[in-house]
Amino acid sequence: MIDAHHHLWNLTDGGYGWLDDPALAPIRRTFGVDDLRAELAATGVDRSVLVEGGREDTGEAAILLGHAARTEEIGAVVAWADPADPDLAGVLDGYLSLPGGDKLRGIRSQVQAAGPGYLDHPDVRRGLTLIGDLDLGFDLVVRVGQLPSVARLARDLPFVRFVLNHLGKPRIRAGDEGFAEWRLAIGPYAALPNAYAKISGLVTEADRNSWTSGDLRPYILETLELFGAGRVMLGSDWPVCLLAGSYQDVVAAQLAGLTAASPDERAAVRSATAAGFYRIDS
To answer: CA-CA distances (angstroms) from residue 46 to 36, 156, 250, 276?
Structure first.
């Protein structure tokens, strides 16, 4: 099994100001490799994908790649970079030359905080083209209202592999209204062959105190229907998920949503899709 989305951060490194939000107090501490290994072992997860944690600077990449170089369980790293950076080529070359650079498999930026039209900007698209040319994927962290621009992007750059984090952050707490809004918005993106999705981050979009696996199941089932198992993967979003539930509880809820899938579909979502997208060695 592969956890296709988790984070590590050390507060002594600085740069994680977003954790100052009082609502995030339960995760305002350092989470290191030993913490990760304990969660993976307890849940039967074999490999993982380490994703940038919102520091939005190149120094974090060296730390994450260093963790990957020393940690067999970390099969891939998604580092931060600004696609519109005029020196993006130099930044990525620098990442690849670092210890652990051979595990760099993707790039992510905080698109969820960007203004309207960001993904349509020519400088952003030039950078994403370079990322695709290097056979790196691009992780999309966006909100449901940004999904139309995500679909345009994936349509216009068919040679770049995109993976939607947290299914585009649907408004699960809004019930049927939130589901209908998300289903309408995600359809055009899901129809594209270079468009992938992570079943991740859903528990923090649901009611964090009272969610059940039943709240997540409609989104999981619809994602499998729209994308097919070959373009869907699982991610814990640990330690952010701790705001709503334990690592084990989140993974169990996601797997419960796959009970109607065939054995081949479950195998794809549990590991094969992520292994292929992020080129993770077995």
So the answer is: 11, 35, 16, 15
CA-CA distance, 5 to 254, in Å (whole number)? 13
- Helices (H) then strands (E): counts for the chain: 10, 8
Q: How far apart are the first and last CA of the chain?
A: 10
Q: Is residue 187 included in any domain, yes or no?
A: yes
Residue 129 belongs to a domain with what CATH number? 3.20.20.140
C-beta neighbour count of 233 within 10 angstroms:
28
Question: pLDDT tens digit string along 194-239?
Answer: 999 999 999 999 999 999 999 999 999 999 999 999 999 999 999 9
Return the residue matching tokens 């990449």: 61
DSSP strand E in the chain: where? 2-6, 47-51, 74-80, 104-109, 137-140, 162-164, 195-199, 232-234
The residue range of the domain holding 93 is: 2-277
- Average pLDDT of span 272-282: 94
Domain membership of residue 103 (yes or no) is yes
DSSP string, 49-63: EEE--S--SHHHHHH
The answer to whether the CB of 75 falls within 8 A of the CB of 123 is no
* C-alpha distances out from residue 10 to 65, 93, 172, 176, 253, Å: 14, 25, 30, 39, 28
Retrieve residue 232's tokens.
Answer: 């869907």
Other Cβ atoms less than 10 A from the Cβ of 21: the count is: 9
Alpha carbon distance 84, 174 (integer Å): 34
- Beta strands of 154-220 (E only): which ranges? 162-164, 195-199
**Chain segment 22-35, per-residue pLDDT in tens:** 999 999 999 999 99
| 282: in domain | no
Which tokens belong to 245?
């539930």
Number of domains within the chain: 1
Residue 118: inside a domain: yes
Picking from 223, 238, 221, 161, the residue whose alpha carbon sits closest to that of residue 192 is 161
